[in-house]
Amino acid sequence: MSPDLLMLLVFGGAMLLGVPVAFALGLGGAAGILVGLSPDMLATLGTNTYNSIAKYPLIAIPLFILTGLIFERAGVAASLVRFAQALIGPRHGGLGLVVVLVCLIMGGMSGSGPADAAAVAMVMLPSMTKAGYPKPFSAALIASASSTAILIPPSIALILYSIVVPGVDLRALFAAGLFPGLLAGLSLLLPVWWLAKRNGWEDPSQGERPDLKASFIQALPALFAPVLILGGLRSGLFTPTEAAVVAVTYGLIVGIFVYRQLSLKDVWGLLGEAGMVSGVVMIIISLAGIFAWAGTTLGTFAHLAESLLSLSDQGWVLMILIMVLVLLAGMLLDAISIYLIITPILIPLMQHFGWNPVWFGILLAMNIAIGQFTPPVAINLMVTTQIAGIRLEKTFGWALFFMLTMLSALILVMLFPGIALWLPERLGFVVGPW
């Protein structure tokens, strides 16, 4: 058996047996090294795991995880919901539109879909249920809308993509994700409004409209967070990694002194929670380094890329095939694992066809976002159904419906790359093809 095949079989077999993805990656890489190289090369395992996480940009990941937790607990979601309700007013589908709008704004703070899903679900599910929305619909909508956090900057997934793909400017990725993220959110608005009106959910005559001025003033500290992060990046005031430090500091000020929802004891608990979540992420990245080094040294990734190229010499055919494969992977794995496993295989294809790496990274992120609320795994959906107190399978129909609507946004970005590339080009970031 070839080392390439053995490495992939060990990884796939471990996953089927329920081994956590981090250890499945490490076992697969170690098996490839043992058979394809030399038992002596197992001495590189420690070096590879360390080198995988000893990268300055990765500091941003635990910091943005902490930022998401801070804003989730600081009462930000409640203030944004009230402001969105004041903007939209009582109407059929109004609460559904509020969900999408709030998730888009929250995505500009945390970069984490599950964190946004939890924060918005805690605030919105009771009022949506009272207004007549079925719980499965509400849970699926919040899960799908919160998936846009993977696109709206700052995005933890895009940070990782910039590290895996050499030469990609993270600032360009952040800027490129903004319009596709908004487009993905907008693709949910019309179906939500139509379904609410068709089914008579949310009687406009029974709703109340909060005072616009008062709700805006209350939401202003939260609304300023994305402006601070993106403005600082654009002006060159701080790097993306430094932006994460600024976001944490600003979140603490808002949570403790403005909204007064956080105490020092709460902050200590959030630090511990962020440490545990970050630890899981870093373990995946570190052990994936073994898999990546083995795959590169053995030529496994190059062989897989050649196999894909042998299927067709038409770039659009392979693009569609890749999108389908990534979508299927997104239904089973988290975004970090997908980027670490699939991206090394796709880099040769990007170079062969001259695909813009910034645009391609946004397509991957949009695809993975859809996977976050598409069964069977659907991590965002797991969060919202647990809060709603319903079984996951009850949401399958609605989740597939929203998957189709968001796929329309993905197809538009695929056909018109300027949707993603116009903003980073206007801001002067490097978006050139290699």
UniProtKB/TrEMBL annotation:
It is a multi-pass membrane protein. GO terms for cellular component: plasma membrane. The chain crosses the membrane at residues 7-36, 56-83, 95-125, 137-161, 173-196, 216-233, 240-259, 279-304, 316-347, 359-383, 395-423. Keywords: Cell inner membrane, Cell membrane, Membrane, Transmembrane, Transmembrane helix, Transport. Pfam families: DctM. InterPro entries: DctM, TRAP_DctM. Its main location: membrane. One of its GO terms (molecular function) is transmembrane transporter activity. Residues 11-419 form the TRAP C4-dicarboxylate transport system permease DctM subunit domain. It is found in: Cell inner membrane. Belongs to the TRAP transporter large permease family. The complex comprises the extracytoplasmic solute receptor protein and the two transmembrane proteins. NCBIfam families: dctM (TIGR00786). Part of the tripartite ATP-independent periplasmic (TRAP) transport system. This is TRAP transporter large permease protein. It comes from Oceanisphaera psychrotolerans.
